[in-house]
Amino acid sequence: MAARDGFYSRFVVLAKILLPLASLALLSTLFLFSDSRGPSGDLPIALNDLQERARDEVISNPRFAGASPSGDILAFEADTAQPDPVVPHMALARALRAQINLNSGTKVTFSAISGTLNTRDQVAQLTGEVLIYSSTGYTVRTDALTTQMDTVAASTDGPVQADGPAGQLTAGKMELTQDTQTGDVHLLFTNGVKLVYQP
């Protein structure tokens, strides 16, 4: 029994010496055979790629909201927005949507495939299958629309087709305006208006 205890004690003493030595040998081998290149050589992305990605920065689900001087709430949102690399206050948006909640309770919404946001001039330009919907019952379709982001004002850049309580109509232009004194909002159709009345 004493011999077994003596063997175990000698084993523990040897292990305390040999194990640290073995670990030092392994570490020295790792340093000896490690790659001598600096950390920059291990980067899988070149500096040019990083700069290109910074220019191509895309913001997901951006949202801009504010109020007009008369207290109407305006909100703009998109699936993605990409800052213009040349003009700092411009951004390109995909699946751009806007909603205007008027004090009267009426809601007007815009949607388009794409658009540009000018944060300096507070102007948004919607392009590609623009759909305008008013809770008063009007649905308007056009190719392009320019709208303010800080007040209730918008106009189409070309012809429109509309469905509403009075029937179907076509026009060369549509404007959304607000009376500064009463706060009333009006849809104004101009330039060759044709109405198919449906009582």
From TrEMBL:
It holds the Pfam family LptC. It comes from the Bacteria. This is Organic solvent tolerance protein OstA. InterPro entries: LipoPS_assembly_LptC-rel. The lineage of its organism: Bacteria, Pseudomonadati, Pseudomonadota, Alphaproteobacteria, Rhodobacterales. The chain crosses the membrane at residues 12-33. Keywords: Membrane, Transmembrane, Transmembrane helix.
